[in-house]
Amino acid sequence: MTRDSARSVALLLALGASLGFAACDAEDPPPAPVEGSAPVTPEAPPAAPASNPAAAVPEVTSPTPAASPAPAGKVRVVRILVPWKGAAGAGSGVTRGKGEARARAEEALAKLRSGTAASEVVKSFSEDALASKGGAMGDLSPGDLQAPYSRVFEVPPGQATEVMESPMGYVVLVRGD
C-alpha cells in the first residue's frame, strides 16, 4: 500500500469512526478511482397549508436533511453505501455478494439520475449508520476526503459521483447545493 493510499484509508477510518462506523482493516486495498457524475434532483419540502398562499410555493432544498446552507468553503455530502458480505463493517444480515452489491449501487445511481430525491434513495438502498440520518456525512471541505471520494467536490451541486468501491462496500456520494 502506498503512503497516499494508507493516508486515504486512515482518513476514511477516522471519518467513519467519528460518524459511528466500525473500523475496517487498514490492509484492505484502496478503492479503484471512478470517473463521472450523475445529476440528482434535490428534494422539495412538503407543501404548505393553503391558508398561507405565499408559503405554498415550494423551495428547492439541499438533498441533505440539514436546515441551513453549508458554511462558506464547505459542501454538504450525502453517502449511499451498499455493502457486500464480508465487507468491513457489514452487518451479519448482509448476505449479498460483491457483484450483487455493485448492481444495487448502480441501481441507486440510476434512481438518482432519474430524479429520485437523494433522501429517498438513501432510505431504499443505503445500509449503514448514516442511513438513519439521511446519509448526511456533514459539511466537508475538499481536504477532508481523499481520492476517489474527493471526486464529490468536482461534481456540480445537486449531482452524484459514479459508483466507487470502498472497503465498506460500494459508495455513491451526492453533493448538496
Detailed description of the structure:
With 177 residues, the chain is of the alpha+beta class. The protein has one domain (3-175): Chitinase A, domain 3. Helix content is 23%, strand content 16%. Strands 3-2-6-5 form a four-stranded antiparallel β-sheet. A two-stranded antiparallel ribbon has the order 1-4. A hairpin with a 2-residue loop joins strand 5 and strand 6. It is globular and about 40 Å long. The protein starts with a helix and ends with a strand.
Keywords:
16% strand; 23% helix; Chitinase A, domain 3; 3 helices; 4-stranded antiparallel β-sheet; two-stranded antiparallel sheet; 177 residues; alpha+beta; disordered N terminus; globular
Summarize the structure.
The protein is of the alpha+beta class.
List the helices and strands and how they pair.
Elements: H1 3-18, E1 37-39, E2 75-82, H2 98-113, H3 118-125, E3 136-140, E4 159-161, E5 164-166, E6 169-175
Antiparallel strand pairs: 1-4, 2-3, 2-6, 5-6
Low-confidence stretches: 1-11, 17-35, 37-66
Name given to the CATH architecture? Roll
- Count up the domains: 1
Mean pLDDT, to the nearest integer, reads 74
